[in-house]
Design goal:
The chain is an alpha+beta fold. The protein is built from 13 helices and 30 strands. The longest helix is centred in the first third of the chain and has 28 residues.
Length: 495
């Protein structure tokens, strides 16, 4: 019995020692091998030595490739060998092995995965990466559609909003940075859209206010400002020109190019202004003379009209308007004179007054004394005032007159029988006035009573002397036409 017990005891001891030997032997094995279920950076290194694990990691590094996905879902691959990609071993794998508790090796068969992450050092050639990036199909010009901003376009004269074009153009610097981050992080894929590599339109239809601008531009493109330039003539500021001046401020309110407005009005003035121009005039003798417009004619007040036009455009409605003028005339045409005017011929010392084509007065006159340098001015002028019983004053003289019709810088038409007994001829050459038009009293009164302020006065020197000679003041009479006109006025005043 004792012998049997001894045998059993001895067998048990032997078995235990055998198991301990096996246990210890396996533990010794794992002294330089990794436990089961061990991974490094996702690679299974179970039962491998540190050297074998390092070699595996290096081999896997050589298998590296980077998948690049475009916005359209197209994929391209850059392989590690193309960019000189490789792993630089360190001492982390041996360190991980040293952390294994050898006697706990059985647990590795039944426990959870023992995963390690290496702070692996990888190297690659940046120039090769740049080269591979430039060779990608998505980077080739023929495959690229550039982004384009939402914008306005004019089609058949109407502004429409054209939506933005997303395109597929990549920013080279953005792509390179994204690839560089991926390679250095040992990442296996890059989504170029998610990485923000695409160039985007800066202006998108939504929220851009383009539709509002289109509506505004279409409104102004159909707007017109019709200017009444006098004499039945019109000038039209068309919508296309107006729209070209238009822009929007930050609050999307219309603003207009003031310099362009001034320029347009300047061109309008150049076309329609007559002040300062020399224009033909057909005299009562049928002669055509050239006379310069001095104070009578048309002259736009461009500065004032520019402000008024800006306000008109702000209101945004088509209108007709008369622009602001410095000077206006009774008519428009070859010389703006029309059918009512005073005509004075210095050569023949003769004056005519027409009203609505009818000759109401024809009279000899005495004009400025040319020998003393006080000759009367030539040009187109107009009556600027009417005064009864005025006193004319100048250097060395003071004369009362009954009828005073000034037309230019102290020069005017007035009666002069108080000191003259005759008119016309050559009196003006040696005994003329200080520049005024000395007129027989009866004719001065006729003209005074019948004329209106603003009536043009045409003063010129005829190229021919028609030999009128001197006429006594007492011999000057009033025409029947003038008498009828005076009676008509008197009747109207009585009524």
């Amino acid at each position: 019995m004792k012998k049997r017990t001894f045998i059993i005891f001895s067998a048990g001891i032997t078995l235990i020692l055998l198991l301990l030997g096996i246990y210890g032997g396996v533990a010794l094995y794992y002294e330089d091998h990794f436990f089961e279920n061990t991974t490094v950076n996702g690679y299974d290194i179970s039962g491998m030595t540190a050297e074998e694990a390092e070699k595996l990691v290096e081999e896997k590094a050589e298998e590296y490739d980077l998948t690049i996905t475009t916005r359209e879902g197209v994929q391209e691959v850059i392989t590690g060998d193309k960019i000189g990609y490789r792993c630089v071993p360190g001492d982390e794998i041996p360190y991980f092995m040293s952390r294994q508790i050898l006697l706990a090796w059985p647990l590795s068969f039944f426990g959870k995965e023992n995963a390690f992450s290496l702070n692996m050092s990888f190297v690659y050639d940046k120039n090769l990466l740049l080269k591979e990036m430039k060779a990608l199909a998505c980077m080739q010009e023929e495959n690229v559609t550039k982004p384009r901003n939402a914008r306005l376009e004019q089609r058949d004269g109407v502004y429409v909003v054209v939506p933005e074009t997303e395109g597929n153009q990549l920013g080279a610097k953005r792509v390179y940075r994204a690839l560089k981050r991926a390679v250095e992080g040992n990442a296996r894929s890059v989504n170029l859209a998610e990485a923000g590599c695409y160039l985007e339109p800066k202006v998108r239809e939504a929220g851009s206010g383009l539709q509002e601008e289109a509506d505004l531009r279409n409104r102004y493109a159909s707007l017109t400002v019709t200017y009444q330039m006098g004499g039945g003539e019109t000038a039209v500021l068309d919508g296309r020109t107006i729209e070209s001046w238009l822009s929007l401020d930050e609050q999307k309110n219309p603003v207009f190019d003031r310099e362009a407005i001034a320029g347009w009005l300047g061109r309008l003035a150049k076309r329609y202004d007559t002040i300062g121009k020399t224009m033909p005039f057909v005299t009562s003798q049928g002669e055509t003379v050239q006379v310069k417009a001095r104070t009578y004619g048309w002259q736009l007040n461009c500065e004032r009209e520019a402000g008024a036009l800006y306000q008109v455009l702000q209101e945004g409605e088509s209108i007709e308007r008369t622009p602001w003028f410095y000077e206006t005339a009774f008519a428009r045409g070859e010389n703006d004179v029309g059918d009512t005017y005073v005509e004075i011929d210095y050569t023949n010392q003769r004056m005519w007054y027409y009203k609505d084509k009818e000759l109401l007065a024809e009279t000899p006159v005495v004009t400025g004394n040319v020998s003393s340098g006080t000759g009367s001015p030539e040009g187109y002028f107009c009556i600027v005032d009417k005064q009864r019983n005025a006193v004319l004053k100048g250097e060395g003289y003071e004369r009362p007159v009954s009828f005073w019709l000034p037309f230019w810088e102290g020069v005017g038409i007035h009666d002069a029988n108080a000191w003259r007994t005759s008119y016309g001829g050559t009196i003006y050459q040696y005994g003329g006035s200080h520049g005024c038009i000395n007129t027989p009293d009866v004719q001065a009164e006729v003209i005074y009573r019948l004329i209106e302020i603003g009536t043009p006065v045409v003063c010129y020197s005829s190229g021919q002397n028609y030999g009128y000679g001197e006429t006594a003041a007492s011999a000057v009479t009033v025409s029947e036409a003038a008498q009828r006109a005076l009676k008509k006025i008197k009747k109207e005043e009585t009524d």
